[in-house]
Structure formats: C-alpha cells, structure tokens
Amino acid sequence: MAADERTVRLRPLRADEFPAFFGASKAGYAQGIEVQGGQSHAAAQQKADADMAAVLPRGLETPGHTIYLVEADGHPVGRLWLAERESGGRRVIWVYDISIDDEHQGRGYGRSAMRLAEAEARARGIGRIELHVFGGNDVARGLYRSLGYVETSVQMAKDLAEL
Prior knowledge:
It contains four helices and five strands; from the N terminus they run βααβββαβα. It has 163 residues and is α+β, with helices and mostly antiparallel strands. The protein has a five-stranded mixed sheet with strand order 1-2-3-4-5, covered by helices on one side. Helix 3 (109-123) links the parallel strand 4 and strand 5.
C-alpha cells in the first residue's frame, strides 16, 4: 500500500528513542562521508563524531532542532530531523536527516515526510527548505528533484590510480 493511501504523520521523538536515532544517524552520516566522500573509515568516523556533537550538543533539547518519528497508520517507518537556521540572510528549515527504515522503503513514506516537512516550514512562517545529499545517493536525489528541489552546488572528485 502506498503512503498516500495511508495516514502518514510526524511525531516528536521521545527521549527514550533518541539514543537509537542518534547512533543510526551518525552511522549513516559516517558511511556517506566514507563511501561518497572518499575519506578513510577512521576519518569518516571522527568527522561524524565531531559534527554530530557540534550540531546536537544538547540532544533533543538542542534549541531550534526537532526530530520526528515518521509514522504510517500509527506504526514507525522512519525518522526526520529538522532545524531552523540562517542561510543567505533568511531563516530556512534545514533537513539534517531523513531516513525510512529499509523494510518500508519504496512506498512513498520519504515523499510524505518531505511534504510534512514543507508543511511544518510553512506553519513556522519559513518559506525555504535546504538540505545536503551525498552525490551517490541517487534515490534521494531523484526524490528531491521530483518534489521540486534544485541543486545549488555540486562538489566532485576523482580518485587517481597509484602513480
């Protein structure tokens, strides 16, 4: 059953759910840094540790940040992490992380969660959403494009064979 045929909603993450979210989010970020960013495993882990500590220093109590459980018909299917921040002289909603559990992917829950993020931004009087996506994440990039998001910068690299 597709997400548009079900009730998808966002529920604020509870304190007891935060450790699992934090660990999974950090692991996914580190993997992206390593695989798409071309950094060593150790360097990717170190960067993920430092970045996550800097961005969420007070966990769920970090001002301006809201982490949601994405639910479909009352059952958890993923997570969405949003924050208000300044960009280009205006307030924006930044999507730090969106993840749909493997067994629920391909059913439209990511699309629904992004639409709910847009509704949340509008409710806060914020007219722009921004995010980062690793270049090799073709599924996410396709989703964002289909929702009207445009690339604002692209970083590229090439590993050269040993000389």
